[in-house]
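Q: Structure for this?
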Amino acid sequence: MKKILAVTGIRSEFDILLPVLKTLKRNFDVKLVVCGTHLSNWHGNTYESIEQEGFEIADRIDYLLMTNRKTQRSKGLGTLISSLTQTVEREMPNFILYVGDREEAIASSIVGNYLDILTAHIGGGDPVYGNADDPIRFACSELSHIHFSTAQEYANNLINLGEEPKRVVFTGNPALKNIKDTPELSMKDLENSLGISLKKYLVLLKHPLSSEKESAYDQMKITMESLARFCEENSYNVVGIYPNSDPGSYDILKAIDEYKENRSFKFFKTLPRLTFVNLMRNADALIGNSSMGILEAPFYKLPVINVGARQKGRLNAGNVDFVDYDHKNIIEALHKAVFDETYKENIRNLKNPYGDGSADLQISEFLGSLDINDSSWYIKKKIFDQ
Amino acid sequence: MKKILAVTGIRSEFDILLPVLKTLKRNFDVKLVVCGTHLSNWHGNTYESIEQEGFEIADRIDYLLMTNRKTQRSKGLGTLISSLTQTVEREMPNFILYVGDREEAIASSIVGNYLDILTAHIGGGDPVYGNADDPIRFACSELSHIHFSTAQEYANNLINLGEEPKRVVFTGNPALKNIKDTPELSMKDLENSLGISLKKYLVLLKHPLSSEKESAYDQMKITMESLARFCEENSYNVVGIYPNSDPGSYDILKAIDEYKENRSFKFFKTLPRLTFVNLMRNADALIGNSSMGILEAPFYKLPVINVGARQKGRLNAGNVDFVDYDHKNIIEALHKAVFDETYKENIRNLKNPYGDGSADLQISEFLGSLDINDSSWYIKKKIFDQ
Amino acid sequence: MKKILAVTGIRSEFDILLPVLKTLKRNFDVKLVVCGTHLSNWHGNTYESIEQEGFEIADRIDYLLMTNRKTQRSKGLGTLISSLTQTVEREMPNFILYVGDREEAIASSIVGNYLDILTAHIGGGDPVYGNADDPIRFACSELSHIHFSTAQEYANNLINLGEEPKRVVFTGNPALKNIKDTPELSMKDLENSLGISLKKYLVLLKHPLSSEKESAYDQMKITMESLARFCEENSYNVVGIYPNSDPGSYDILKAIDEYKENRSFKFFKTLPRLTFVNLMRNADALIGNSSMGILEAPFYKLPVINVGARQKGRLNAGNVDFVDYDHKNIIEALHKAVFDETYKENIRNLKNPYGDGSADLQISEFLGSLDINDSSWYIKKKIFDQ
Amino acid sequence: MKKILAVTGIRSEFDILLPVLKTLKRNFDVKLVVCGTHLSNWHGNTYESIEQEGFEIADRIDYLLMTNRKTQRSKGLGTLISSLTQTVEREMPNFILYVGDREEAIASSIVGNYLDILTAHIGGGDPVYGNADDPIRFACSELSHIHFSTAQEYANNLINLGEEPKRVVFTGNPALKNIKDTPELSMKDLENSLGISLKKYLVLLKHPLSSEKESAYDQMKITMESLARFCEENSYNVVGIYPNSDPGSYDILKAIDEYKENRSFKFFKTLPRLTFVNLMRNADALIGNSSMGILEAPFYKLPVINVGARQKGRLNAGNVDFVDYDHKNIIEALHKAVFDETYKENIRNLKNPYGDGSADLQISEFLGSLDINDSSWYIKKKIFDQ
């Protein structure tokens, strides 16, 4: 039985990994390395729910430093790379599997490269720009042996990078399966699980952008104030989730804290999937700058107001409205998303470029049939004139 | 005055950096971070000569682990990334400058990316493959803000990767200046500086290849034995330099050690530049698998026998003969390089694709005129349809 | 001029270091390494105020991991030791100076030991027990070359450990100078600087105890509830400061958070010294388990209710009442501290065993006159039959 | 079944651990963490033989840095502490077991202290001084929960330190069992296993001393030259073992290398136990500064010439002659050890203070009967007036 070591560091990315791991477990020996925000109380100790899913934990790697300075990420990454090497040498998997553009992805790519262990990367080829994560994603693609891309256009980008075509597979976004498989909750049950009453509401997911870290507080303040005005005028509520742990997150939390007396807002550190998916299903719009707006909202046919430069460059299925940090523009975009029937109709009819929710099966099949004794998988060549 | 922090970890790569740093010192505040093999007695403590060049040392970073296992490199890299972040935050340079495909290059790229400091990489776009270093080089290109490439063909490869053209400059190989500026030694003085007498001789530079680490000893043994036979038949000597510190180097040293009684061979841990350049100038051929055969030997018009797969994929100026690990093939290639007058004449007339030795000036001018307040330099976008 | 490198990681310990550093600056080249909670937003970014004091910062070392698991401390300490070595080799001070029993103290002791640099430890010989910090303090004493002890009894303990007498100096607690030098604020100004109005109040400082981490939440809950009852019955207020960053602190914060609607309580992340000292001067009692109750409260002649096992074993000047986690006992102790006139009179007349506030001068004189070329300072011998 | 995690980093200390581990395996779940020089080719890759002993390896931790600078040890120790914490959290043993005064001992003590896991230290209380390792040994004693001491005098020292008597057990040196259990080889077989012929010979074991690192080369040179003269005059041979990895070892190797043409000397990186023990049994004397001269040579009734300050302060069973670095003194001491029949007779009759070779059984019994749920074992108190 082939052995797979998956590496995960943050809730948002584990949502993508989870359906894949569940499917892989049928035919592979699967172990998990749990890192970063999963191990942080301040981020809801999500490692506990991962361990309850029944996966075997190979190691728990702490590297998330308690500072808002930019040093946080590269110092932490160094620790992660060294620690993960210890784990990988002991476990000696056939594949290391990871997602996206964060510390876990680049650390896994690097360790697999130096230890000559095949690495499989979900989510390469996405040309989003503006955040420190974005060039990391491409660096991961240069180092990874196998690419599972979430859109055909992104697969093509990897070929343009000179990647050998046999390494590139368009599978779609695995997280869609996740949504498909989540049972429907009644509004009553949703309210109970949140502990609040809900009528018309928006969901807010806002992360810091490394290149604009100094403005994180002001940007969040504008976003919050615009939402406060819109909610008051239109009797809407906002359900928000706390930001990730990147530098600038502290400033976002500060801005959130200033609205703690405002009844329109209700924030959660993290939410169980059942609650979250149903929250999205019943929302009127998503606002903020989470990748979920680009990658998952099309599946929900949900209008998205993406505030600021994060997610710029990504494939827009047609449901995302990019606006800058300006009260008037944000409020107008909220109006369009919530009240403009033509716009909403278009979104209900969009064609989702992020696949059909079968990524888990495709990944399992591909890794299952790959000949791990074929040395050509281990040595990467560039082909620039494809 | 703009501030530049250069990062160096190994003699071979400092040879490329040195002429650039000397030129930069005229107009920039230049500091050095000294790492890795430079700090190792087993590799000749080359940091001492660097410090004697008069550069200010920002920090000394130890990360080279004493093991021959593959874990050596990624565990060490983790330490380097964390340690270098500490240095960079304190120094706050305008640019971080580095060369090639080793730990220092990827560590610097990563730190610059997360700390929003401009990074300048010398040597990107080279499609060599087969070694763990090779994908690292491309990962560095994805992360670096500025690329100084050593051949026009390599610059084109970077454009193909989607790099914005304004970031890519063909400067040629800076190390050529180094050779140009080295005074000529008479054979007598060369012999004195080496402490041996020389007539007809070859130079041997052989490093381990990560994807073939397990064969490192056997491969070196075949190389040594072929050279031993050739030397005996043709009254030749071999002057060798010890390998770098990568996993497998221990095995190469073991094979070398078995020939310590053989008078045809003379090995050095490291050599001063004056001695080394004149050794190359008077050699009849270079054998092994050093990048020097590809990148610098054309400047010397020197025939190269590249044994094995290392350096595969690189731009061959016409002076490199690739042979596999086979006594007969190696000895034939040695004969051609040393005795085939037509072949030697062609090499004497080759056109060097690695520039004219003015890279240092071009780099200095480019960094000098770059507007560090222009935010477009800090945010990398992909352009895939150039 | 002799060079001193001081290492600091937390506000409470910097309070002890600060008066010493100010005095040392007159005759020594003083640099600071700033670490740990000083660099954490969650702990008030106290490094900013340190840098504003005008000290030169040698390096900023991040090691505080964002988790509530016990792994936090030893993983972080590993990072600190490696990082600090880089700093110390570059700075090459004549002395490394540090305080107490936390990561900075043991890291500095270890680095000085291996690098053969003299280390001076403030606060050794204190037999407090029950916390993970406590054995660390004695380990620091075994490694340190010079001991500045805060009580004569503690100096005697160090001699009992076999330390050579010439290394042991009773100086008293340097932080007392700090208090002496702080100007008096009127109650009006104190209230302004806190942003609240105050009449009769207690100060609360409560940290987790590693050996009872699992009970941290319950213990704090009992403490808070007892205070809530006492305050309501007697019209008292509580001014609290957040706990340090040790594992369990998250649980303490959780208990605090549950009383955020209770008007009797007001919590601060951290307070400027001027405010804090005057807060203590005007308080009716200190409650919790901070070392301040033992070490500084005698100077204020302030009654202390020490709840739980932290600080057990320490020299009690007579002002500290140890109680366990029990509502009745805590409330009774509060009554005694606040209303029992005989008890209060005794405390007003106590003799402070922690010195007269001249520790800074004694330390400066000792280090100034020590012959750093005398090799006997560098080689520690044990003398067990003193 | 109680679980024990043993931590080992160097051959000399594993010799002490091995008989204990073999005995523990009968009644405990035993796992090993293998670190440091065990993983270094330059030190004979001794981890391979450990793994062949059939112990389960919990993790392999690389931390040994390739430099001769003093930074090597504390930087490496930092890495070890962080890495070992990862292992300990995963394994969650009931006891961590370790020996002596090196990085593994202090790292294990620290990790156990912060993670509240019982730690058992073999070899505390030994007042040797002059090396960076020596204060580390006492720091380990302050942190460790259980002490197995190799001499009654050393146990007494621990009580003097204020350790609670129930934590201190005099067991003797476990390595003696090792020697007892090693079969006798004929001289013929010994010669075969060494690959040399032997008649009268001395054994040389010489390590660097941190406080005299700068003199390491000169000191070894004097030792080698004295031995060369003695051997030539008296037809003796010297069988030497390479030094450990501490800073200065490179210089010792350099001095050894200068005698590589001298037929009197034969050096080995490391030797199998069977060979080594029989080498000691048949030697006429041991020279150098290894702890073996103090701790094990009494068992062999072997005269020892201890050159220089290393081992100063230790309990001398009467077989050790301390001499300084002086040709005349060394040669005289060699004469006494080899030719002075009265002196030799005294040594044959000495009483060994290091126990009777039953330490393994005593340790197993103590750990087996200890109640791991008794919280008093976890909280250390100082008792200064015993």
